[in-house]
Description:
The complex is a heterodimer. Chain A is mainly alpha-helical. Chain A has helices at residues 2-8, 13-61, 63-66, 83-92, 114-127, 141-144, 147-157, 159-162, 185-194, 209-223, 238-261; strands at 169-170, 176-177. Among the domains of chain A are: 2-46; 134-226, Orthogonal Bundle (Cytochrome Bc1 Complex, Chain D, domain 2), CATH 1.10.760.10. The relative contact order of chain A is 0.09. Helix content of chain B is 35%, strand content 15%. Among the domains of chain B are: 21-99; 174-314, Rieske Iron-sulfur Protein (3-layer Sandwich), CATH 2.102.10.10. Chain B starts with a helix and ends in a 17-residue tail after the last strand.
Amino acid sequence: xxxxxxxxxxxxxxxxxxxxxxxxxxxxxxxxxxxxxxxxxxxxxxxxxxxxxxxxxxxxxxxxxxxxxxxxxxxxxxxxxxxxxxxxxxxxxxxxxxxxxxxxxxxxxxxxxxxxxxxxxxxxxxxxxxxxxxxxxxxxxxxxxxxxxxxxxxxxxxxxxxxxxxxxxxxxxxxxxxxxxxxxxxxxxxxxxxxxxxxxxxxxxxxxxxxxxxxxxxxxxxxxxxxxxxxxxxxxxxxxxxxxxxxxxxxxxxxxxxxxxxxxx
Amino acid sequence: xxxxxxxxxxxxxxxxxxxxxxxxxxxxxxxxxxxxxxxxxxxxxxxxxxxxxxxxxxxxxxxxxxxxxxxxxxxxxxxxxxxxxxxxxxxxxxxxxxxxxxxxxxxxxxxxxxxxxxxxxxxxxxxxxxxxxxxxxxxxxxxxxxxxxxxxxxxxxxxxxxxxxxxxxxxxxxxxxxxxxxxxxxxxxxxxxxxxxxxxxxxxxxxxxxxxxxxxxxxxxxxxxxxxxxxxxxxxxxxxxxxxxxxxxxxxxxxxxxxxxxxxxxxxxxxxxxxxxxxxxxxxxxxxxxxxxxxxxxxxxxxxxxxxxxxxxxxxxxxxxxxxxxxxxxx
Lengths: 265, 331
């Protein structure tokens, strides 16, 4: 201890210590700074890898119809500027790739998994700006939606095709508006901002994001609504009701009429 | 061949009446009686079920029934109980009538409807005598005032026909749309700029009014408008109609020219507008020309433009009456 205190009192000690401290701080800074820059580089690398991967999937799975550069073709539209939301909707719900060339792309088990879909979306989004995939932070319909307002919006904007209870309905020549029951909030939102297939676009200004959340909340409320009045018969209105009345109801009445008029033995 | 063989077929007459088993077999009759009683008892059980579900089944219980899905238990059993109660009363009564009530066929004789001459003469004499007794022939003041009061009562319902009017006048030819009226979203009442609509987008709009909370339904029924945006080069319109559009945005009355339903089923791919009621199909690029269905006229197009602040406004009122035809409609 005594030796140490003697050393401390020497004239040279302060400059030497300062020098050493500077070296330590400098090296540490260089080391940390280097780490920061390398991690940044990794992120952007990962992004471009994802785009590359998406491009590879696109070339393999989509380019035969949509063209090598997504410029579209005789049977498929251009994908430049459709945005990530459109890809996420079409591929995520299994509508694309098409199973056959019929009028309507149907919802089915997706061909690509989540990462592949995300990569495809990332690639198509780089072609030109378009609607982005709504994140979970944006889909706060439980908190921000207004069911009554959503119902009003749905009846004005959606009910004519998707049925007043959201059960879907027929369009022309084999096309149809699918049911919105059981559809994830993300896909409902994406369908509104991208206008898939025959559906028109409902942009963020014509129907604000808050209004869209209200519509989703209303749809979810209808979905979980319990039947109070007996069999709902698919909630599609007079078609099934008429069928049941004419076939079951009148059939039963005919049976009773036959019983009434048979002579008992 | 003898004459007898040439005679037409004899009317075989009605078959002999066959009595039912219960008519001559006491055991069968007792069995039928028990069956009827069982049917009535089932009805009674139905009523018990009805009362039980009303009193004892909680209002928030849902049960799963195959095919029907989740059902509200109380409503289901109330309905079932009442249906059983009513149906088996009827079934029991019918079974009773068919098996046990007398089935002896009775011939009811038909008589002439006209009364005998004496009865008719007697009636006429009575009426004449009574009229003379009341004195209507002499007391003409009573007769006339009575005729007046009865007559007025008789024709007074005609007055109520006035409620069928007044005639609509020019109301059907007018809408709220006029030059400079802003297009606002329905619902929401926000003004729209052309850039708010992407190509392929639609928007449901109404005219901007001071008090949108109390918009009258009668005005909505005429003012409702659908905005559609397509690529401007896709229009196949004459110069005047083209000048009514704005950068690919075209505005049509949403009221079907057939029966007045809201035409708003828009297929982005085919650019067809459909009416959900009777499938009238309108082609948007050619100015809503009817290409299918019962509608006789294209949907009226509203001329739109942009005001100094960049908002979409009407450039002129509709040039024709919107909605279905009516007698006084100007062609």
